[in-house]
Fold this protein.
Amino acid sequence: MSREKLRTELRKEQIAQAAIELVAQRGLSGFSVASLADRVGLVPSAIYRHFRSKDEVLDAALDLIQQKLVANTRAVCDETSDASERLRRLLMRHVQMFRENQAVPRIIFAEEPYAGRSERKAITARIIRSYLDRVAEIVRQGQRDGDLRKDLNPATVSIMFLGLVQPAGVLWFVTDGRFDVARHLRSAWEVFHDAIRAD
Amino acid sequence: MSREKLRTELRKEQIAQAAIELVAQRGLSGFSVASLADRVGLVPSAIYRHFRSKDEVLDAALDLIQQKLVANTRAVCDETSDASERLRRLLMRHVQMFRENQAVPRIIFAEEPYAGRSERKAITARIIRSYLDRVAEIVRQGQRDGDLRKDLNPATVSIMFLGLVQPAGVLWFVTDGRFDVARHLRSAWEVFHDAIRAD
DNA sequence: CTGCAATGTGAACGTCCATTCGCTAATGGC
DNA sequence: GCCATTAGCGAATGGACGTTCACATTGCAG
């Protein structure tokens, strides 16, 4: 009585996606091969038809996260050419992304840098870097356009931008969604925007 | 051949402290009763003379973290009465606190909200809240003194302050300490301070 | 239509880990 | 200095989990 068969490429992505959701919902310790298989509608051993190990699934999940982050920055850049507006929209996009976004810090913080697997920390670092670089590029663009203050370091600004999102996400998580992220971000954005825009 | 005996109050604190360091270094998944006992110089079962369960150890660790955070805000308030200076010093204190600070987000993000233990999320929320409240109080004080802009919401500012520290901590962690936290914070503080101080 | 490679199944294995228990050794109040 | 209490030890237990393997089923290529 085997379930529907899927080609390994589709399955792989489906499994990686399920991994992200699972980690986001139950944390890394709730992320077992059994629960993963269950969520995809498979039996645990079937996972090993597509991945050599549980660790490999996590790596694939990280890949997927990176793709999503890139897609987000691309999208806002396509929507508008105004730097301030790009950043504001990117910020708002994060509100909707929180559920899967929670998986990022969870994977980052929970993984142990035990011998041999410390590569994942490097991978994570690269993901964050590439995201920050994209944000910094938006900032640089805004500086050229005269929209943003020219005396600010784009790298600093990009990290500060990340600092708008992150604590909001944490508060949202620990209060079980009771913290009004959108409200806070609107308020914080005003202060932040005021600080970085050209007068 | 039993090791030195310690009174349970001392042991409890010692164990809680060891738990923080262990989580900070190896992550939540590296935090086992065995490794914990090892670090304290005991045998696993001995832990249960002082705590009813592993979860109880984590709760004690959270308690300890809260105490440390409170101590930090107290210290900067004692050092100076200038709101801006208080915040700046609090920020710099975090640089040195990172090692144990890493335990906070790790515990927050990695724990699963499975039935019955979701109280810990509430505890974590309370810790963060109390910290934010203290920061907000510093801000309010600064507004009364005319040091900080009066039109800003102290709650928003306190969360943004947290947003200065957090991403820096993440970057520091994923780059294995290669990211220059102090440098970034000096730069970011300038922008932030500019945004919140009264003109 | 046939057969082989790709997927999926279920049982089994070994490991790790939290926790329990009976015993021993130290400590502190008397 | 004596004894009860407290703290620590080591072995044992039971469950969860990652992974493997032999076998079943599916679906595509020819």
In short: Residues 1-3, 5-8, 11, 42-46, 49-50 of chain A lie near DNA strand C (CB under 10 Å from a C1'). The mean pLDDT of chain A is 90. The longest helix of chain A spans residues 54-79.
